[in-house]
Design goal:
By secondary structure, this protein is of the alpha+beta class. The chain is 60% helix and 17% strand.
């Protein structure tokens, strides 16, 4: 299908906007895919807080150049691009899972405007999701404070236990 120059400029502008708004971009090459399978993948990408689009390679190359992103990318064949607008590791997991099928192959991507390889995407996929990372960091920050509070409270607790034991001991003979 041939596109007019105006339509191509609009597509390049849209690609550039997605690149600027996303934290990361991952590329999958695919073969022998039905629209049903692509739609299922797009649904998983939306759940991960991103978008997936089948793109024109040459137009994406122009958009990458216009966005100031440098790198030698493998833009051959059919390419499905995922843009991570929220949680980068979640989108990496979706693409990593998809690449395990025969019809998909990870091509690489960009993270914060730097080129990353398919191995880097697999490493990102192994990271825990953002809420889990936040909980771990919060736990690490709270642990020293909790220990400090317990350390300060322990002598008073021990003293209260001694006083209670003494009061119970002296109350028994009087009865």
């Amino acid at each position: 299908m041939a596109f007019s120059k105006k339509h191509k400029r609009e597509m390049i502008a849209q690609y550039t906007q997605w690149l600027k708004n996303s934290q990361a971009m991952f590329m999958l090459g695919y073969t022998r895919m039905s629209m049903k399978e692509i739609d299922a993948l797009r649904a998983k990408v939306r759940e991960a807080g991103g978008e997936a689009h089948v793109i024109k390679n040459t137009l994406l190359q122009i958009a990458l150049h216009e966005s100031g992103i440098q790198g030698d990318t493998e833009l051959t064949g059919t390419t499905l691009v995922g843009f991570a607008f929220q949680d980068v590791p979640a989108l990496a997991k979706v693409f990593n899972e998809a690449s395990k099928a025969e019809s998909f192959k990870l091509k690489g991507g960009f993270l914060d405007f730097r080129l990353i390889s398919s191995d880097d995407i697999k490493a990102l996929a192994d990271m825990p999701p953002l809420p889990v990372m936040r909980a771990r960091i919060l736990g690490m920050l709270q642990a020293p404070a909790s220990r400090l509070v317990r350390t300060f409270a322990e002598p008073a607790r021990q003293m209260a236990a001694v006083v209670k034991a003494y009061s119970e001991k002296s109350a028994v003979p009087a009865a």
